[in-house]
Amino acid sequence: MADLEAVLADVSYLMAMEKSKSTPAARASKKISLPEPRYRPRISFGFLLFKDYCMNEIDEGVPQLKFYEEIKEYEKLDSEEERLSRSRQIYDTYIMKELLSCSHPFSKKAVDHVQTHLAKKQVPPSLFQPYIEEICDSLRGKIFQKFMESDKFTRFCQWKNVELNIHLTMNDFSVHRIIGRGGFGEVYGCRKADTGKMKKISELTKSLQSGMISLDCIIKLGNRDCPFIVCMTYAFHTPDKLCFILDLMNGGDLHYHLSQHGVFSEKEMRFYATEIILGLEHMHNRFVVYRDLKPANILLDEHGHVRISDLGLACDFSKKKPHASVGTHGYMAPEVLQKGTAYDSSADWFSLGCMLFKLLRG
């Protein structure tokens, strides 16, 4: 009977996975729903609605908005060589062209600032900051006032209302079979009812909450600004449990791939190690030590990129260094094994070395 229940749970889970792929929001509610939280930090809803209003309702602010977007793209460039090339393009298109036609609507101070830096081939990310300030000052006038009276601004207010008032319960998810066990206990696959997206849910009994120092770490790392950590999407509670909804990774973990396909090549390990290091640095910059780095905790997403998972043993060392001997034997640093010895983020770098050796040599 238990075997039959397991088979039925597997079938239900696989059907939910297929449904999430074929119908992104099957039978979804027609209410306003936000994009996935992983995309929200990268989307400026207000700006996009304001831009749409300008392009479709009036023509006054469109050239300035295009100029603004070009500057913002320029500010994202990492290399000085790229910034030098792009800054010259922006100058020729939006500044020099208007100066020659005597129609440049910006101050001489802004022009001089850019020209002086370009003459010296100095291209800091803030090169066009005077223009950003003048564009914003210009758009704050009549154009923005009209926007606030439009249906676009009403839509923006609706988005913000939804974003700030998301109250979830278990009824918002279809929970399927157990897919693993993490630092908080059993992990289940689940499907969000309104979007059809597959997630995983980790439950923590409230009576154990006081002993779980990693809760603070999950909250601290929950802003989703690192693509190499499995971060929390939603959180809610029932009378006896805390529930954390996390992204579901479909690419397996490095332990699985090691056991199925053998050791990794140096080229593969350079790629994975780079992304793992970026994830660890993100934690360490926020004074969080991971403490359980091993192949089984490194998941791959559908595109093959790394996600560090299971923060059940993570610890905040901003105020006090931990000294507990926790982790997985074979990957624990000497200072972690030595009871009573305080340690910090250095413990993770030792574990990283052990893990890379395991993946390269087996």
Fraction of residues in helix? 40-55%
* Major beta-sheet overview: 5 strands, antiparallel
Overall strand count? 9
Which segments are poorly predicted (pLDDT under 50) over 5 or more consecutive residues?
23-31
SS-derived structural category: alpha+beta
CATH homology-level superfamily of the largest domain: Regulator of G-protein Signalling 4, domain 2
H/E series, N to C? HHHHHHHHEEEHEEHHEEEEHH
Give me the CATH fold name of the largest domain.
Regulator of G-protein Signalling 4, domain 2
Tally the structural domains. Answer: 3
Strand order of the largest sheet: 1-2-3-5-4
Pfam families: Pkinase, RGS
Organism: Terrapene triunguis
GO molecular function, one term: G protein-coupled receptor kinase activity
Protein name: G protein-coupled receptor kinase 3
Any key phrases for this structure?
single chain; 362 residues; alpha+beta; Regulator of G-protein Signalling 4, domain 2; Transferase(Phosphotransferase), domain 1; five-stranded antiparallel sheet; two-stranded antiparallel ribbon; globular; kinase; serine/threonine-protein kinase; RGS_subdomain_2; transferase
